[in-house]
């Protein structure tokens, strides 16, 4: 009897994750307002009542997608707070903490779907109503900006804040790298993750330095 109960619990967990996986894919492509609970149930191949049972509302389900990926944000903060290695450039240390866990997470279809989901949520004018960016991403923003100002004492508060926002734009849009092949007529190919990561780190670091004496 106990063994049967354990199997039932495992089945419920599996179905819950199945729903979350389907929801992540759909929201990444259609945005919050373009996807219904029924769409998610159909994609997950479960009944709508099961989705409602686990999450109650679409917003609860949507928020859970960010909660289960919170480890990526925690890893970024962990890297940010690591002591500098001998001879390590402080700004590069900060930028790598900002970029690496996100790029590593893109090494799977699920990771790419989550990256697209973040891009959609961050660029949605109605994101403030859901409070997800404020809850999950703003605390990291505060830490990142603080670290920049400590690494570059001459940088103004205004420049540090804009630097963070522009860095977010570069990082978030990097997931859409296949577009570069279209706009270049195929002359430029999408980069492998390692190459793209190094290019992105260099780009963000140079952008922060370039803005110090301009705004």
From TrEMBL:
<dbReference type="GO" id="GO:0000976">
    <property type="term" value="F:transcription cis-regulatory region binding"/>
</dbReference>
<feature type="DNA-binding region" description="H-T-H motif">
    <location>
        <begin position="36"/>
        <end position="55"/>
    </location>
</feature>
<dbReference type="InterPro" id="IPR050109">
    <property type="entry name" value="HTH-type_TetR-like_transc_reg"/>
</dbReference>
<dbReference type="Pfam" id="PF00440">
    <property type="entry name" value="TetR_N"/>
</dbReference>
<dbReference type="InterPro" id="IPR009057">
    <property type="entry name" value="Homeodomain-like_sf"/>
</dbReference>
<dbReference type="InterPro" id="IPR036271">
    <property type="entry name" value="Tet_transcr_reg_TetR-rel_C_sf"/>
</dbReference>
<dbReference type="InterPro" id="IPR041586">
    <property type="entry name" value="PsrA_TetR_C"/>
</dbReference>
<dbReference type="Pfam" id="PF17939">
    <property type="entry name" value="TetR_C_30"/>
</dbReference>
<protein>
    <submittedName>
        <fullName>TetR family transcriptional regulator</fullName>
    </submittedName>
</protein>
<feature type="domain" description="HTH tetR-type">
    <location>
        <begin position="13"/>
        <end position="73"/>
    </location>
</feature>
<dbReference type="InterPro" id="IPR001647">
    <property type="entry name" value="HTH_TetR"/>
</dbReference>
<keyword id="KW-0238">DNA-binding</keyword>
<dbReference type="GO" id="GO:0003700">
    <property type="term" value="F:DNA-binding transcription factor activity"/>
</dbReference>
């Amino acid at each position: 009897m106990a063994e049967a109960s354990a199997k039932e619990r495992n089945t419920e967990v599996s179905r819950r994750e199945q729903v979350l996986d389907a929801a992540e894919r759909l929201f990444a492509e259609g945005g919050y307002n373009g996807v219904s609970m029924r769409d998610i149930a159909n994609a997950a191949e479960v009944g709508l009542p099961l989705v409602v049972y686990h999450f109650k509302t679409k917003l609860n389900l949507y928020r859970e997608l960010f909660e289960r990926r919170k480890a990526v944000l925690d890893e970024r903060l962990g890297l940010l707070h690591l002591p500098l290695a001998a001879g390590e450039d402080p700004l590069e240390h900060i930028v790598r903490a900002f970029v690496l866990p996100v790029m590593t997470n893109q090494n799977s279809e699920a990771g790419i779907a989550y990256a697209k989901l973040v891009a959609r949520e961050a660029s949605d004018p109605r994101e403030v109503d859901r409070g997800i960016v404020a809850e999950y991403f703003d605390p990291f923003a505060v830490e990142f900006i603080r670290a920049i100002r400590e690494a570059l004492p001459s940088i103004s508060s205004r420049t540090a804040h804009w630097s963070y926002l522009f860095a977010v734009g570069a990082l978030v849009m990097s997931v859409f790298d296949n577009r570069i092949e279209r706009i270049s007529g195929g002359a430029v190919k999408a980069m492998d993750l390692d190459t793209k990561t190094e290019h992105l780190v260099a780009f963000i670091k140079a952008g922060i330095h370039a803005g110090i004496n301009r705004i």
